[in-house]
Amino acid sequence: MRKIYTLLLAFLMFQGSLHARAELTAEHKVQLSQLEYLLAVDRLDFYSDGLADYLMDHEQKLAAEAIRRIEPEDLAKEQFNSRDLNNPDKWNELILSVLHKKFPEFKHLTLKDIEWNYNFFRKKLMEGFKADPIALKREASVSDLNKGPVAYNKRSIPKLDGKSILLDAERYISEKTTRALFWDAALTDKSVEFHLGTERDFRQRISQEEREVVAEVKTRAANYNKIYLVFDPRSKEYSYAFTRISGDDRVKHLIAQLRILKYDNKVALKDDFVRVYGNANEVHRDQEKRLLDMFKTLPKADMVVIGQKSAIANVITMAGMMSQVQPNPQESVGPAKSQIQKLSERVKETGSYFSVTTKASVVKTEFEKMTNPMASSFEIFNSEQPSHDVSDVLLETKDGRIVRWRFISNMWGDEVVPVARALKNSGHDKVVYIGTAGGIIGKGLKVGDVVAPAYTYTQDGKLLPLEKPTYGTDFVKMGQTLGQVTSPFDETKKWFAKWETKIDVVELETGYLKENLGPKVSFQPYLLISDVVGSEHESLAVAAADSGKRKNGQLKLLESLFINNGIRSPISNFQMISAESAVQRMYHKIDTLRPSRDVTSKLQLTQLALRQGLTTDAELEALIKKEASFDRQILMDKLEKFSGGLELLSKKFSGVSFAIVGGEELLNGTWNPKKALKLQVMVGNTTAEKAKSVYQTELAKIQSAMGAELQLELVNYDAEKTRNAIFFNSNSRKVLVQHYEGTILKKLGLTKEIDKNGGVRFREIIETSGGMRCEAILL
């Protein structure tokens, strides 16, 4: 195999890459070319599986079976030109050439015999299986104090034989994360590491270790765990990093792939363990706290729906379109009655614009014929979290009431735990979950069915009863027992023998949700059958091709959900009413004068203006010209960087309490991060002189790293000054950030979130007493 790979590298260097990358070093280009070639091979092999499925259904069974026996190594050995590998029109030709060589008995087959004109599928495949060069700047929040190795946990790799797993693991992994990066890791001894936490957490760790991100691996399926090729300039080693992981189940699932995948009998195991950065319990605690604060600040939702968020958004948009469509009355009777007229009659009968959910294409076509259609956005609040998104929509019932529904996207396994706990502890009492599940073969279930189980096992084996379903009772299959796994890779032959007689369906989240929501929350799970466990033709690996089968059941369920709750239509365009009227009035005055300034800069000006009693435009203009403009990234970077300096002090000894007693600008939200930050800190109940002596080395390091940006003064203990102090100790993390988020932002009705690219966003969350409520998004 080494010989083959050496030939492959020589071939790649000779023919060159398709893309010029002047910004990359010569070695980066070589590494990227290797990866790109393997990604193209992975894509071609994945396509060949789809081609085999098609031929199997079109009287070419023997050819289909032979194509399935072509291995990725067979394709790589041919050293196909990269241009051909990246040209979908050439794929059948390449596959046929390998088929002729490996199985001479099929030499009579021609391109016409294996023709498959599924251009849409080929086009979608070209959007994935790519490696895009990327240059991430060093995080400004990381100072010289933070540089150095970052702590990680060593995790052993489970002993798992891919052949024992019931689904086609190779095909599944190819679509979800690609196999190519694991092949490359196996062939070149690259390590694979896993990062719990946000994208920003990952970037800070990389900056601390002074490593570089070379490229991002783009997958065929949507994947919220970004995958990067990383380089360490000191050791000259490359590695792959899976990021934005929010639960231990996801870590286990991703780690298992290292043992499952083999390339020429070699696995991607540089060591007997992998590096896992971060801690799932800490991630869950942070997420639960953030979500709990958000849910308590927002008005309570009348209904929470977890899962199928994108589909629900489309259904709500469709209902909004239908509410504007006015059918031609001349088409309302007789055989010439139009489709839209029939739908209009359906709306009249049910009293709900959601009653035409399954006819969205008809509604959209008619809507687009309108002279002045008004496409509305119905989300009045949305928040992007690392593992999921949250949005709120206002809906009008048939009797004229306004209700608030909260929609949360699907998650993986224990990622739902902090969400469930935050919902329960914020008083939410009505939750519907719509997920996907595998039906157990022989239980009368097929892809596309919708089930509402009567019982669910938890991850630790407890059997819990589930609420009787109230939606879709005319088509939903009921009464099943639901099993739980942490990954589809758990579904082995041994697992099947144990659970086959005990369960009817299996998935990852319902047990966690039921257990953590508790008995007082109304919780109804509905599961769309995506595959049949143990079936060759309805396996999870081919689920993407069967998505159309699930769509009908999904839409019927959503239609029932809205109609049975008496929902007439979505509503939009409600004016925001603020609980902090003085703050909001001043903020919007400044926003009118300087709309281009970042929200954080405008908030700082708002605080200054209110404290100085400014009211006229002239006074505000003078203030704006005096204060330098800044953005949220600079602010948060400085707060995190300075927090690192304080942590250097607090971590010297455990059990010592520190108190920030001076630094009014930070405490009241008027600090401009383009100016120095002056802080006065008390250490325990000791004197300033003694504290300076004990922490002399740490203070010198802080001074060296921060320069004049942070002016830190240790002062004598004074009990009177501790009344409004910010306290921290050796267990505290990012103390200045926590203060800004928990005090300044909350006072102004804002919450912070980290987006999918590691950027900082602030969202305005206003709660009012009485009247209509709406939340604006400040970006």
From TrEMBL:
It comes from the Bacteria. GO terms for molecular function: catalytic activity. Residues 1-22 form the signal peptide. GO terms for biological process: nucleoside metabolic process. Keywords: Signal. This is Nucleoside phosphorylase domain-containing protein. It comes from Bdellovibrio bacteriovorus.
